[in-house]
Amino acid sequence: xxxxxxxxxxxxGVYPYAIYPVLxxxxxRLRRRVVHSDDAYLPFVTVITAAYNEIRHMESTIRxxxxxxxxxxxxxxxxxxxASDDGTDAVVQRLAAAHPNVILLRNEPRQGKTAALNMAVPxxxxxxxxxxxxxxxxxxxxxxKLVRNFADPEVGYVTGKMLxxxxxxxxxxDGCSAFMRHENALRVAETALGSVVGVDGGVDALRKTLYxxxxxxxxxxxxxxxxxxxxxxxxxxxxxAVLTEExxxxxxxxxxxxxRVALRALWALWDRRVLLNPFRSGIFAWQLWSHKLxxxxxxxxxxxxxxxxxxxxxxxxxxxLGAVGQVLFALFVLFAWVGPSALGRFALSRYCMYxxxxxxxxxxxxxxxxxxxxxxxxxxxxx
Length: 383
Prior knowledge:
- By secondary structure, this protein is of the alpha/beta class.
- The chain has helices at 2-31, 55-66, 88-98, 113-120, 142-147, 171-193, 220-230, 251-271, 278-281, 283-296, 299-311, 317-338, 341-344, 347-370; strands at residues 45-51, 75-81, 102-106, 128-131, 137-138, 155-165, 204-207, 234-246.
- The protein has an 8-stranded mixed beta sheet with strand order 3-2-1-4-7-6-8-5, sandwiched between helices.
- Strand 1 (45-51), helix 2 (55-66) and strand 2 (75-81) form a beta-alpha-beta unit.
- The longest helix is centred in the first third of the chain and has 30 residues, at 2-31.
- The termini are far apart.
């Protein structure tokens, strides 16, 4: 009985990371829903960036959007300052004086990114709204590649491809980059299924008419795509719409970000739990269970399987091998965290460390979710 429980728990724990991507890719090849994009489709676009004390990035990100290969007369840039007090507003005002399509809005008092978007989107003139973070640097054709997909009337939301730059070679940065490569590949498969489950937030576009007002504690990068699916439209991935951001460079900063994202995602799943019903949303319910809920909860079956493994050592060499694997995993994590740099930079060390960080952050987020805790405000991401 213990052996059956062990294998069930182990499979449940690894399913969202290893089994689901294979299944999604296979089903996607059979299903293969095509996006009918058109490079000649050039609607009016509003780029919205919510910012709190982002003076370090603000000028470069605005100039990056102004330099897009997109007709300037069909492009509007709105920066909504969430009660910034570091000079962010002055930078935007200076650029707005030289570029009439740059607009500054101010949210006072500070209420967080979601409330800022609720304020800014109704004021946007664009048929398509592009969401960009303050530190998001687009390739010159990113906006054009994003919006061409809206030529397909079934498409309501488009997410681009996040590429993390890791200029200082930090271990957590390497793990984060590997994680995003896995996510981008999965999004290609999910687009073929019909709709993508997870998006990036910094390189996304939405039909303005599909935007729905959100509570301040809700995660816009997750809730808005779910609302688009609930309205009968597709959420798709555009791999040629590329965003580059620097990775976080310390375990503590990455951990805090992962806890925040997981906590807000759990609340989003709770708020939109009707979409977990396969009789309501069909194959998308399977995707949502697999890609999000079971992944955020995988720490539980994995931890239980680890404990059972030690109780099964007398039941065969496979369990001894499993125990040895646990010890090696712990050593790799330890080496990456505090060990000699030569061992810490070994590929297995940094990937094991990042996997452990992800699951520990999910566990902490789940405990906070059960306690009813929510997070609305946070400090700007640091690279």
